[in-house]
Amino acid sequence: MGRDDGGDVESGSHRKSDGLGTRKGSRREFLTSLTVLGLSTAVPESLLAPGFAKGAKRPSQTQKEFRVWVWADAHVGTDKKNGRDSLAEAIRQSESPFGFDWDMALDLGDVSGEQGTPKDAEGEELVRQFGVLKRHRREQIYDLSGNHDRSGLDEPPAWWWRKWIDPTGEHTEFSHVDAAKRPFPIDGTWERYSFRAGNLLFLMMSDINEPTQKVGRGTLGGNPGGVVSGETFRWWKRMVEENPSSIIVSAHHYVLKDTTVASGEWEGMQREKDGRWKPRYHGYFPQGTPQGASFLYWVDSKPDSGAFEKVLEAVPARVDLWLGAHTHTNPDDTYGGKSHIERRWGTTFINASGLTKYHGAPGTGVPRSWLLTFNDGSNEVMARCYLHSDEYAKQGWYPKAGRVIKLSKPFKVPSANRGASG
User: What integer pLDDT is reported at residue 33 of this predicted model?
Assistant: First the structure.
């Protein structure tokens, strides 16, 4: 079937568009869906058609927006082999007159499509595709590493990702990333770093190889199951505890256990009638940890420790958002009784996967990304899903998946909106 540990397999019937994805009707349908859900219909003026939604609460003309584009799982090499530029296509669409603007972007990992370890040729292709940016700088995109971006167990940690993606600007000659041009300077290392935009505090954590495992990326050809070091976890915990006045956004390639779609134990797999396991969303590697293939499984070399969950439970709503990816599927999938946006411990979790169309079982890719729109002085953020192809529904906004999310405190726009394009 061509599945691998980063692949996606659609669960349930495939629903075609009923018109909700059309640009002409998308705003009306979006507001209607919010009303049905009992959510706020206060939306930015720029998201309303002229003269539309007379009863909707509208912000004043002086209200400022801050837009964060969130994407993941471009799997550039896989789509390139099938004649598609997954990353470049999404960038061009966002910057087109019919697209959407953004002040900064978050790349949540798995830019590589290699089933083994990533190679320089794919890194060069990534830089080429980033090069299509016209209205934004490369430095407006903040990256973290996914499981497919890991180097081999016997190689320098994350050498490929550090060379070609390079969030700290250590290898500008290859990555073309100049740290001095970051609109919001980062503090930390490639494995974990933070940055601030207004009163938003972003905590970026990269996925790594689990040091206690003797098989994995390169050896098996893959081994899903999220990993962070003890140092990264303790850094995250300290940042959460020391910043109660910030709107905290945690980001990792994986979500936490039992949060969004298919993130439960064994939910990345499916069992045959004879009792054997096989892939559902992720590759089945019995020598690895297939039971934890869909969530952040290893923390400080402890399997299924629940370390992050315990912190969130102890200080509910201290972390506003957890952004993850990894599990590719259609935007309506609710396998395991969980959707792509769920709330636990006062934290809203979003599965933002993925830009790829071909990395997974044939015909199941639904290229998509998310736009988070914050408004100055508002304690709500609008999350909107954008479809980058038209196989599942019309290309463009997919209103059915959109949500308005409550924040723990009002957002304060960055001074002079330094992240703005140009």
Answer: 43
- Which residue type does 242 have? E
Q: Is 201 left (phi over 0), alpha (psi -120 to 50) or beta?
A: beta
Find the DSSP H helices in 254-375.
307-314
- Judge whether 199 and 245 are in contact, CB under 8 Å: yes
pLDDT in tens, 308-352: 999 999 999 999 999 999 999 999 999 999 999 999 999 999 999
CA-CA distances (angstroms) from residue 176 to 113, 122, 167, 173? 21, 15, 10, 6
The tally of CA atoms less than 13 A away on the side-chain side of residue 188 is: 24
Q: How far is CA 337 from the centre of its chain?
A: 20
Any idea where the domains of the chain sit in the sequence? Answer: 67-375+386-413
User: Omega of the bond prior to 354 within 30 degrees of 0, cis?
Assistant: yes
Q: How far is CA 34 from CA 15, 40, 332, 333, 410, in A?
A: 21, 7, 16, 19, 20
The Cα-based distances of 128 to 150, 181, 355 in angstroms read 21, 19, 17
Superfamily of domain 67-375+386-413: GpdQ, beta-strand dimerisation domain (3.30.750.180)
Q: Which residue has the tokens 């200080």?
A: 315
Beta bridge partners of 271: 277
Supply the pTM of this predicted model. 0.84
In whole angstroms, what is the distance from residue 177 CA to residue 386 CA? 26
Q: Measure the CA–CA gap between 260 and 320, rounded to whole angstroms.
A: 15
Cα–Cα distance for residue pair 9/35, rounded to 1 Å: 31
* Alpha-carbon gap, residue 177 to 385, rounded angstroms: 28
Whole-number pLDDT of residue 63: 52
Mean pLDDT, the chain, integer: 84
